[in-house]
Amino acid sequence: MTKLNFWNSTWHLDEKQCPCDIHFLDYLEEKKSKGRNIFHMGTGSHHIVGLKTASDGANNQVLGITASKEEYAAYIDLLIDNPKLGFSYKAYFGDLYQTDARLLPSLDYATLFHAGEYRTPENDTYGALTDEEVAFVLADRLTPGGEILFYTGSFAYDVAARAGQALVAKKGFKDAGKYKSLHVFKKGP
Ligand SMILES: C[S@@+](CC[C@H](N)C(=O)[O-])C[C@H]1O[C@@H](n2cnc3c(N)ncnc32)[C@H](O)[C@@H]1O
Fold it and tell me: Does the global pTM surpass 0.85?
């Protein structure tokens, strides 16, 4: 029987091993980003991107996706204990590779830090998108000047880099260079 390729695990914040979320928060702060819409792949059980943006006064909004039952349960608990979080941070459970543009808001940033890490032939059994296709769906929902960010420390960074190159070749993005462990691709006007 076909089953969703969910992530049968959970991830606690570990800046040494995986600093991408922290570096993204640093990036938002350095750019003084305010009132921006963010799509974030891979919440972790810590939900630091949603939690920090909800409390730093910058009025950024985060739509986060997790493919982990435990991480989603952690979000539910956080929200029950802190209802104000729900105004600016929505997390949902699902497979990134089923992303549909019609269900996405207009975006200023999309993080694909774990592109390529967990996509397997199991995703193909239900017709899931490829990494490049997901990047293109998100690209189409980005405002001009919006950015897609990949994580250079990912074990599948080669896949992410190829998706980034495809954004440049086919979607009018430019390679905006690196910021700490992140690789930024910027949508043209
Ligand atoms: C290693 S954890 C990293 C979490 C967090 N970004 C961090 O760096 O601390 C990988 C994350 O990718 C998410 N993930 C894995 N496969 C996914 C998929 N197909 N769709 C959406 N999220 C997925 C997991 O739920 C998890 O949050």
Answer: yes
